[in-house]
User: What shape does this take?
Amino acid sequence: VQLVESGGGLAQPGGSLRLSCTASGFTFSNYAMSWARQGPGQGLQFIAGIYADGKNIYYHDSVRGRFTISRDNAKNTLYLQMDSLKFEDTASYYCLKSETHMLIFTSSGPRTDARGQGTQVTVSS
Assistant: This one.
């Protein structure tokens, strides 16, 4: 399993970025996927997840209405469109693969079995 994130960088408050995660080594269309982030001195935080078929989507309250998760199963790619960025969105963003076609939530977020290396997002004026 390989997950490679891209698209991070520097953005101004109120700006936008689009993250991508290219997957390989497994049948992408069979698995739910998620995005999580880790800010400075913080733990990993689930922010968005999507079922294998793309029909069920979940967001953390902190990003709902600003971020949009999507997937293209034909391209084995997961996306995160981030709009109206805030200073507190500064973090390393990770793409995660779930264990099944659906998201199975625990107290800390969905159960996952693989994670990419992350891409840095910095929101600064």
